[in-house]
């Protein structure tokens, strides 16, 4: 996986760092290949930044904060307007690169960029989002108001599965609030992220306001402990997110960690059969199951258990191929290691005694024989003590359980360690209302399989899927990226009565 600098093929692109407004070559000796998961072609080398480079990035962000925080809100807003226009113009180009480095289909890659673009559009509303509050006459001639001020240097650490959307959850909202930013993209697919960063500079983000360092644990730990970093946004697995949350918190940062998932879809017998089965197949196998909001567990309630053979038939029709090929439904998983991990979990499921109704292990894709492909895979007769139920598989694998009632389904979902997303499929408003009230999950979909909220709401999560109280984007992230200051003010005029010295706390 890692290569030494001197062995790098000179003809292959080296991903740059962004420090103080300049795209620079890293001086590191540690590099990693960025590969196309459908072909294993090496697309680029990504550096693991040195201590000095991380330091330079943070210092540049620290220095830029002094002027950026005073930049008028309208100027910051107009940069976001320009950025959204540039992303829109370049959306197809970015999607092609994203598909090549990550594996997802081109239309899905366009969706990845588009969902991030929507956050940039929303960032342009910062004029109203960052307003404080004001109360007149809280005491005689005394007013109290709040200022929402930027916190300083913020850091962002992103996962491989949405290399456009998730960086765009972070840096536009952070910098439009007046902060400066150091981004650490996923080392597995940093190319499309870097295209977005280039557009941000073209849109007018001044030097030092946005910096990028690449790497793994060492870079992440350095950012979580640096004295100048005030806030850390993390999206990725539960193990790493928990580490980031603890390390950052111990060092006095505010931290938001959005983490792993095991998303259930609960199907009641009164649901619309065709729409529901289409939704399950799409949300279970789309993006090769590598969405944090992918449906990974289907809970069939009562007689909806009879729909299982039809779900298997729908899954069989999905076309496994390279993401760049037209009409592909399921691309490869991101790496050989990811494929091995998913295959290992399928093997575990077989050993645990689940029934393998559809086995995607031996899929061969003509012309892409080296790709990291796994076909749609479905297990039934799954129980909650099995590893395939408890572990986030992050591949095109659906596990199916059966229960007798909605109450049982709710209890089952609430016992799972994760709390990211859930869907209920029903025609009953009463059942849906009960479900949304009793379920302990961040994102709830009613006849919607992947209920990712639009950017004027906020992404959330519960239990093992989230640490920290404020989520990415929307109003919550404006709170996360700003600190509140209250000002209590009194002004004297000629009519103000001199009350003399008062040594008691005010009684009114
Ligand atoms: P990951 O946790 O392996 O990596 C995330 C980031 O952490 C990367 O930038 C990586 O370089 C860094 N990292 C990896 N190991 C580290 C370590 N030991 N110490 C410090 N940093 C480390 O996650 P991934 O495989 O890139 O992404 C998939 C995961 O992300 C899944 O669990 C998925 O559910 C989750 N995810 C969650 C959300 C959400 O909003 N809840 C969204 C997308 C993805």
UniProtKB/TrEMBL annotation:
Entry-linked InterPro entries: Ald_DH/histidinol_DH, Ald_DH_C, Ald_DH_CS_CYS, Ald_DH_N, Aldehyde_DH_dom, MeMal-semiAld_DH
Cytoplasm is among the record's keywords: no
Transmembrane regions: none
Keyword ATP-binding attached: no
Start and end residues of each Aldehyde dehydrogenase domain: 23-487
Top-rank taxon: Bacteria
Enzyme Commission numbers on file: 1.2.1.27
Pfam families: Aldedh
Keyword terms, alphabetized: NAD, Oxidoreductase
GO molecular function: oxidoreductase activity
PANTHER family: MALONATE-SEMIALDEHYDE DEHYDROGENASE, METHYLMALONATE-SEMIALDEHYDE DEHYDROGENASE [ACYLATING], MITOCHONDRIAL
Protein family: Belongs to the aldehyde dehydrogenase family.
Protein name as catalogued: methylmalonate-semialdehyde dehydrogenase (CoA acylating)
Lineage: Bacteria, Pseudomonadati, Pseudomonadota, Betaproteobacteria, Burkholderiales
């Amino acid at each position: 996986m890692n290569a030494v600098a001197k062995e790098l093929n000179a003809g292959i692109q080296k991903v740059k760092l962004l420090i103080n407004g300049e795209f620079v070559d890293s001086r590191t000796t540690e590099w990693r290949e960025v590969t196309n998961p459908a072909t294993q072609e090496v697309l680029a080398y990504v550096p693991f930044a040195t201590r000095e480079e991380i330091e330079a990035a943070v210092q540049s962000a620290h220095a830029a904060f002094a002027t950026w925080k005073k930049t008028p809100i309208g100027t910051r807003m107009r940069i976001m307007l320009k950025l959204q226009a540039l992303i829109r113009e370049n959306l197809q180009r970015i999607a092609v690169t994203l598909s090549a480095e990550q594996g997802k289909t081109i239309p899905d890659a366009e969706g990845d960029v588009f969902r991030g673009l929507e956050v940039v559009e929303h960032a342009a509303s910062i004029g109203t989002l960052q307003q404080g509050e004001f109360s007149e006459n809280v005491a005689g001639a005394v007013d109290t108001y709040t200022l929402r001020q930027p916190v300083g240097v913020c850091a962002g650490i992103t996962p491989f599965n949405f290399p456009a959307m998730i960086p765009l959850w972070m840096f536009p909202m952070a910098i439009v609030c007046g902060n400066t930013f150091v981004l650490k993209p996923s080392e597995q697919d940093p190319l499309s992220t870097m295209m977005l960063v280039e557009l941000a500079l073209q849109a007018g983000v001044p030097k030092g306001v946005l910096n990028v360092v690449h790497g793994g644990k060492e870079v992440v730990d350095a950012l979580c402990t640096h004295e100048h970093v005030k806030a850390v946004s993390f999206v990725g697995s539960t193990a790493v997110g928990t580490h980031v949350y603890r390390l950052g918190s111990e060092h006095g940062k505010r931290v938001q960690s959005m983490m792993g998932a095991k998303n259930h879809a609960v199907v009641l017998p009164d649901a619309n059969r065709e729409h529901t089965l289409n939704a399950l197949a799409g949300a279970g196998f789309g993006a090769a199951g590598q969405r944090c909001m992918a449906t990974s567990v289907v809970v069939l309630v009562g007689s909806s258990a009879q729909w299982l053979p039809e779900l298997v038939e729908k899954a069989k029709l999905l076309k496994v191929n390279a993401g760049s090929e037209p009409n592909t439904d399921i691309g490869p998983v991101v790496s050989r290691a990811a494929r091995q991990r998913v295959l290992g979990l399928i093997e575990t499921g077989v050993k645990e005694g689940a029934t393998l109704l559809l086995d995607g292990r031996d899929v061969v894709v003509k012309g892409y024989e080296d790709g990291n492909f796994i076909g749609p895979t479905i297990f039934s007769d799954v129980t909650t003590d099995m590893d395939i139920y408890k572990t986030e598989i992050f591949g095109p694998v659906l596990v199916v359980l059966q229960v007798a009632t909605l109450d049982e389904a709710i209890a089952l979902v609430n016992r799972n360690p994760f709390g990211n997303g859930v869907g209920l499929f029903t025609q009953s408003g009463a059942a849906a209302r009960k479900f949304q009230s009793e379920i302990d999950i961040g994102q709830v979909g009613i006849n919607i399989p992947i209920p990712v909220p639009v950017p004027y709401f906020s992404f959330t999560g519960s239990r093992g899927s989230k640490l920290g109280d404020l989520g990415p984007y929307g109003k919550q992230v404006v709170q996360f990226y700003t600190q509140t200051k209250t000002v209590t003010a009194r002004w004297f005029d000629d009519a103000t009565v001199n009350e003399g010295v008062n040594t008691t706390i005010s009684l009114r």
